[in-house]
Amino acid sequence: MRGRRSGDKLGASFEATPKGAHMQVDRRKFIASVGGTAAVAAMAHEDRAEALEHYMTDQLDRRVSLATAAQASTEPRIPRGTGNLFQPTTSGFEPMPAKPTLVDYFERRFAPARHVLQSANHAVLTGQPERTIFACLLHDVTQNLIKADHGYWGAQLFAPYVDERVSWAIKYHQALRFFADEAAGYEYPELYNRIFGADYEPDDYIKADHKFARNHRYYMEARLVTVNDQYAFDENTREVKIEEFTDIIGRQFKQPKEGLGLDNSPTAHMWRSLANPDRPL
């Protein structure tokens, strides 16, 4: 297996034994889902990695493959970075309550959220601190708002309501996932090597953020999210419910009395966008 050591070029390798069950990805179906071989070749490395993670998350949530045929160049296409709530839908959106809570958003806007629920459950099973469990629960839900740079958007979305270490972990997990850390128990994802090859190079801003995070006192906050993240793409695990984390949410999340989106926080507008994705203006 090819892998990346912390701070090394991607070409470095190490032997590792896979742990846990991982989702099987059909290379050809994945490439077709993003527009074919030519489209993959034209994508930046970071975009390829984001597309792969989005493909895996959508498989868990929808239980179906993404589109299997490349679209014609003249056919309108929704940008790959568009959040899940802003994709075409025939079911509409369940109205939010008058004073929505984080659990309300999980049930009515983030559901089924299997990936983050599995990730948080894995953190519980491996005895992680409660703060890490909570960060795992939140780390990817912002993909419902926007997929591109979801870690950065997620950190902003949650910052007014969580411990700064939680928002820090959400932000920097996006960069750290591209760099192995054997001491922490994180292997560079085998899927990245199989899909993109061992010469994969993250974008410069991702490298810079990895370097910054690696030397920060909060490094393990984000690293533990990636450690648990990689075990979360498991199609055979039991269904995890948000109710299992109600107590943790109560201790870790500062719920505004007015309701999320109605509290005039610096990110209230982001919550309103999640609550009302059909609004034209």
Notes on the structure:
This protein is an all-alpha fold. It has one domain (27-275). It is built from 13 helices and no strands. α5 (114-125) runs antiparallel to α6. Mean pLDDT is 84; it is low at 1-21 and 64-72.
Q: What's a quick, concise take on this entry?
A:
With 281 residues, the protein is mainly alpha-helical. The chain is 45% helix and 0% strand. Helix 6 packs across helix 11.
Question: How many distinct folded domains?
Answer: 1
- Major sheet description: none
Work out the strand percent.
under 5%
Order of helices and strands: HHHHHHHHHHHHH
Task: State the distance separating the first and last CA atoms.
Answer: 49 Å
C-alpha-based Rg, rounded: 18 Å
Question: What low-confidence regions span 5 or more consecutive residues with pLDDT below 50?
Answer: 1-21, 64-72
Counted beta strands: 0
Mean pLDDT: 84
Name its key features.
281 residues, mainly alpha, globular, disordered N terminus
List strands and helices in order, with pairings.
Blueprint: H1 27-33, H2 37-42, H3 45-62, H4 102-110, H5 114-125, H6 130-138, H7 150-158, H8 164-176, H9 190-196, H10 204-214, H11 219-229, H12 246-252, H13 268-275
Helix pairs in contact: 5-6, 6-8, 6-11, 7-8, 8-10, 8-11
